[in-house]
Ribosomal-protein-L7p-serine acetyltransferase (Labilithrix luteola), 194 residues
Amino acid sequence: MLVVPPRSELRSRPIETARLILHPLDATDSRDLWTTVEGSRAHLEPWLPWVPFNIDLESSGRYAEASAGDWDAARACRFAIRDRATRRFLGVIGLEAFAHLHESVELGYWLRLDACGRGLMTEAGRAVVDWALGPVNAHRVRVAAATDNHASLAVIGRLGFRFEGIARQAERCNGRWLDHAVFALLVTDPRTKG
């Protein structure tokens, strides 16, 4: 079975990397979440179908509160990604679609435009995947990205996921159908370091 620690545990002892702090997303992040999405809307909209529905501070607040509820109900664990030195909000990374019986989760993530291209998502991804396959007791982590989302596919490659196939027209986003490249990593697979 999957093991989901209480949010309070990760709030008091967040996941830390060389440049990042990852803590459970909740209502205290609402304003930063809204400002970040609004400032990176054109960058995010081609790939994330929820962006057009994030229309104001209240919608960001509802998402943050729902994220806390999903964590508490062991359905998903979403983290705010913050710069370790400045505490600036950079994006969100999370484990979604918990399948407790199968010890399986899905990785999802996004980063603000001005934080891209510096390896931050790879750093956050490595930390969350290690957490998923370690303390959370996941046997399998699945991830998918649009076949033309080259930045996301590069992150997936650097994290050592194995390609499993193409899910045709898997998601409707920004008025178009996206084919998804699907990948997975098993706890028994060799993992990349560094």
In short: The chain has one domain: 7-186. The CA atoms of residues 40 and 114 lie 8 Å apart. The first strand starts at residue 15 and ends at 16. The helical segments are 7-12, 30-39, 41-44, 57-72, 120-133, 150-158.
